[in-house]
Design brief:
The complex is a heterotrimer of chains A (349), B (267) and C (228).
Chain A (H helix, E strand, L loop, with lengths): L1 E8 L4 E8 L4 E5 L6 H9 L6 E6 L2 E5 L4 E2 L7 E4 L11 H5 L10 H8 L14 H13 L5 E5 L7 H18 L3 E5 L2 H7 L2 E6 L2 E6 L4 E2 L12 E12 L4 E6 L2 E6 L8 E7 L3 E4 L10 E12 L4 E7 L3 E7 H7 L6 E6 L3 E3 L1
Parallel strand pairs in A: 3-9, 3-10, 7-8, 8-9
Antiparallel strand pairs in A: 1-2, 1-4, 4-5, 5-6, 10-11, 12-13, 13-14, 13-16, 14-15, 16-22, 17-21, 18-19, 18-21, 19-20
Chain B lengths: L1 H33 L3 E6 L3 H14 L6 E6 L1 H9 L6 E3 L3 H9 L9 E5 L2 E5 L13 H5 L4 E4 L5 H12 L3 H6 L3 E4 L2 H9 L5 E5 H6 L4 E5 L9 E6 L6 H10 L2 H10 L5
Parallel strand pairs in B: 1-2, 1-3, 6-7, 6-8
Antiparallel strand pairs in B: 3-10, 4-10, 5-8, 5-9
Helix pairs in contact in B: 2-11, 3-4
Chain C lengths: L4 H34 L5 H13 L2 H12 L4 H8 L8 H25 L3 H9 L4 H12 L1 H16 L3 H7 L9 H9 L5 H33 L2
The chains are: A alpha+beta (349), B alpha/beta (267), C mainly alpha (228).
Chain lengths: 349, 267, 228
């Protein structure tokens, strides 16, 4: 879908990245502020020209410094949703929606219904709420029939409730409209919720690139303290109404989550904080924890302080945070077979 | 304690400085007046000749008096004098403006008199094609060009020009065909002919002589227009010995020589 | 107030010349303002300076420059005359003089307005597939309308007061080039003409105030449309 190599030097700061994503869903580009994410997405859209590199979107070559190809912005067919929405203030919602070149009027009704903005058509942008503005912005980009949707922290200026609401819409976009999404953010929650593929950048360089279901180091808490989270993509198997338990299958076996209602979709993503995982050498009996997995220690990772992260293979990768003293006491080392007890599991919709 | 003192202190200092400055400036102004500067307000068409006459006067009388000259249109100057401008002597290009000031009692009795007069001429631009024999042939000579003249209402040269053309029975034809370009002063009239915007123009002889680009092709006879007289007068209350001496010099032989050199006619 | 024929001529001519110089100058002014606001090119400073020249030169000098570029015997002037475009000593010449004097004011007002248009909006339009011309016509221009209106009014007002360049270039010909300021000046140069001058002064003020009121109405409508 997207294949880029980008280099740009700003003097004090430079960007040098290379990544690709075959996902037809949502590819998330994540990183802290100042990591170069907006620079990268601007280069992909054409609003910024790289010093060197190439850009492929769905096998179309949009930029190649070597071959001196630089497709102008207006021909790139990349829909762009900006953080501030950028609706045209002198046009009502309808005119904004239909502004795109080759905008597909026949899809107008369908699009506005799916985005829930049918009742807003005659309104002026100044009279829209933040969430409504972004939905109109999304609609406007979609109606131009782009090959890809670029989103630069679209939820940043919204409050918590609106964010949740909008994430639901965004999550369904690839499926409902058949368009891949390239999404820039620094929010853990958005990453966990939306990404089908995750590319992490920092200081202008790619740090990791992979599918979720692996580990998301440093994503845990909002203070960026580096809480280690293990993320699993599971398939729901059963829902116990009486006790409010969701049973889901994943590579590591079956995991049980407490929930009031079953999730709407069978595919659910699950997150486990390393600090919520305990290690036992013996199989625990008569214990309240239900999520117990058998696994083999892969390696121990120093995190500074008096704790250590124990990475184990339970069929999938699970990390546990253990004090150094306990690690020594139990003799934890690679290859050792252990039991991992998961106390808290969060479900991400 | 210190802060309060600074605020008031600096405010007071500011006022003291301003008061001193005002005092010194007014003293200076009065002092300068008292030093005996002579202010001459003169019509623009007399600029060069008046300057030379002043030089000649200072040389002849070995005077160190400072002359301040203000040149402009006679009408503007008269109005400024009426509004209280510091003029000692008023030299006009038209007697009507001196009459204007006389009516308003701004002229010292007995000081006004004609010291020079001028001729009216037709000039041709460098690009003017036809030769002009007489004003009667002016209309044909113009072709598709306009005739440059001063405003007949407000520029003396314009008024005289109209009289002269009427005398030669050429006015109706030329003005009727809308072929006259009126300018608010003689400088602009001359400029129009110099740049060939107009092929012909009517100006004073003295103006024509100052320009190397235009050619005098006809001089109107004195009887075809009102006399173009230049009166000079002393502003009421602004007379003194020096002023009297200059006014006398203005009508004397040396000044007459200079006037003639520039093309003015003297008695 | 009973106005004489000549006074009415002067008023009519002033309004005619004012409207024509804005009408003829507005599009070049918008183009130049956009050029200066959005483009980068070599010689931009020079273009900027040239446009501002009539603002800083004495108007008579500007009139003189008009004579040496568009005068009867200049290459450009004679070419235009041969083509049948005549403006020597008629109202069209007055329009040219007014236009040249008002252009810098119009360009300045419009440029400020264009610069205030959020470039982010123009970028958004680009991502939606709009080319430069479409962006200008649908985004930049509509959002600059208040500046364009104020530029037009400034241009009209400047034209109403235009004297030096006009009288140098096309003289003071009643019915053809005698606009209000020229007529007013003539009266001040005539003894006893103060009354007439005062009347024309009152008329000039009335026209200027009317123009301001009209511009306010337009500006409010433009702003209102955005905040429906």
């Amino acid at each position: 879908m997207i294949d880029v190599k980008l280099k740009k030097n700003f003097g004090a700061f430079d960007v040098d990245v290379e990544f690709s994503s075959e996902s037809a869903g949502i590819t998330v580009l994540a990183g802290p502020s100042g990591s170069g994410k907006t620079t990268i997405i601007n280069m992909i859209s054409g609003l910024l020209t790289p010093d060197e590199g190439h850009i492929f979107i769905k096998d179309r070559l949009l930029f190649d410094s070597g071959k001196k190809i630089n497709c102008p912005v207006e021909q790139r067919r990349c829909g762009y949703i900006f953080q501030e929405g950028r609706l045209f203030p002198h046009m009502n919602v309808r005119r904004n929606l239909l502004y795109g070149r080759h905008s597909d009027r026949s899809r107008l009704k369908e699009t506005i219904t799916l985005l829930g903005i049918e009742h807003l058509l005659e309104r002026m942008p100044t009279k829209l709420s933040g969430g409504e503005k972004q939905r109109v912005a999304i609609g406007r980009a979609l109606l131009m029939r782009p090959q890809i949707l670029l989103m630069d922290e679209p939820l940043a200026s919204l409050d918590q409730e609106r964010r949740e609401e909008l994430m639901t819409y965004i999550d369904r976009l690839p499926e409902q409209f058949g368009i891949p999404v390239f999404y820039v953010t620094h929010s853990t929650h958005e990453i966990l919720r939306l990404s089908d593929k995750l590319i992490r950048v920092d200081k202008g360089r790619v740090e990791s690139s992979g599918s979720p279901g692996g580990e998301y180091h440093g994503l845990g808490s909002s203070d960026g303290n580096g809480e280690y989270i293990s993320v699993f993509d599971c398939k729901m198997k059963a829902f116990d109404n009486e006790f409010g338990i969701v049973s889901a299958e994943f590579h590591g076996g079956v995991i049980r989550i407490l929930a009031n209602t079953p999730p709407g979709e069978p595919e659910i993503r699950v997150a486990v904080k390393a600090s919520d995982v305990t290690i036992s050498l013996d199989k625990p009996e008569n214990i309240s924890t239900t999520n117990i997995f058998k696994g083999t220690i892969r390696n121990l990772e120093e995190t500074g302080g008096h704790s250590v992260l124990v990475h184990s293979d339970i069929g999938a990768s699970l990390a546990a945070q253990v004090s150094k003293a306990s690690a020594v006491r139990l003799g934890l080392k690679p290859g050792k077979k252990v039991y991992l007890l998961v106390k808290v599991v969060s479900m991400i919709y | 304690m210190k802060t309060i003192m600074s605020k008031n202190f600096y405010a007071k200092i500011k006022w003291i400085i301003l008061a001193c400055a005002a005092t010194f400036l007014s003293i200076g102004a009065i002092y300068a007046q008292g030093q005996g500067k002579i202010y001459i307000y003169a019509a623009a068409s007399t600029t060069d000749v008046v300057k030379e006459i002043i030089e000649s006067y200072k040389h002849a009388n070995k005077s160190s008096v400072e002359f301040v000259t203000v040149f402009g249109s006679s009408g503007d100057l008269a109005k400024q004098i009426e509004a209280g401008a510091d003029a000692n002597i008023f030299i006009s290009a038209d007697t009507k403006w001196v009459k204007y000031l006389e009516e308003k009692k701004f002229v010292e009795a007995g000081t006004s008199g004609i010291f020079a007069s001028n001729d009216l001429v037709i000039v041709a631009s460098p690009m003017a094609k036809s030769k002009l024999k007489s004003p009667e042939k002016l209309f044909e000579a113009l072709g598709d060009s306009n005739l440059a003249m001063g405003d007949t209402k407000s520029v003396p040269a314009g008024k005289y020009g109209k009289e002269a053309l009427e005398y030669h029975k050429a006015w109706e034809k030329i003005s009727g065909a809308n072929k006259i370009a009126y300018y608010p002063d003689v400088r602009k009239t001359l400029n129009a002919v110099e740049t060939s915007q107009c092929d012909y123009g009517i100006v004073y002889k003295t103006d024509a002589m100052m320009s190397s680009k235009v050619k005098i092709v006809y001089t109107f006879k004195a009887k075809s227009h009102s006399p173009i007289d230049y009166p000079a007068c002393v502003v009421n209350g602004k007379n003194n010995d020096e002023v009297k001496a200059f006014m006398k010099f203005l009508k004397a032989g040396k000044a007459k020589q200079i006037l003639k050199k520039y093309g003015f006619a003297v008695k | 107030m009973n106005l004489t024929g000549e006074e009415l001529n002067a008023i009519g001519l002033s309004i005619k010349v004012g409207i024509w110089s804005v009408a003829a100058g507005l599009i070049p002014a918008i183009w130049l303002a956009h050029l200066l606001a959005r483009s980068r090119f070599r010689g931009k400073a020079l273009v900027d300076a040239l446009i501002h020249l009539p603002l800083v030169l004495p108007p008579v000098v500007t009139g003189y420059l008009l004579i040496i570029t568009l005068g009867r015997y200049t290459p450009l002037g004679s070419l235009l005359q041969r083509m049948g475009i005549k403006f020597a000593f008629n109202w069209k010449g007055a329009v040219i003089a007014s236009l040249v004097m008002s252009l810098p004011l119009m360009v300045r007002a419009i440029r400020i307005s264009i610069e205030a248009v959020d470039r982010g909006l123009e970028d958004a339009a680009r991502t939606l597939g709009a080319g430069r011309l479409r962006i200008f016509m649908t985004i930049t221009l509509p959002l600059s309308v208040p500046g364009i209106i104020s530029g037009a009014i400034l241009g009209f007002a400047r034209s109403l007061g235009e004297f030096g360049a006009t009288v140098t270039f096309v003289a003071n010909i009643p019915g053809e080039t005698q606009t209000l300021p020229l007529a007013l000046y003539s009266y001040t140069q005539t003894p006893g003409g103060e009354m007439m001058a005062a009347r024309l002064c009152a008329v000039s003020i009335a026209i200027a105030v009317a123009a301001l009121v009209v511009s306010e109405i337009f500006a409010k409508r433009a702003a209102g449309r955005m905040n429906q």
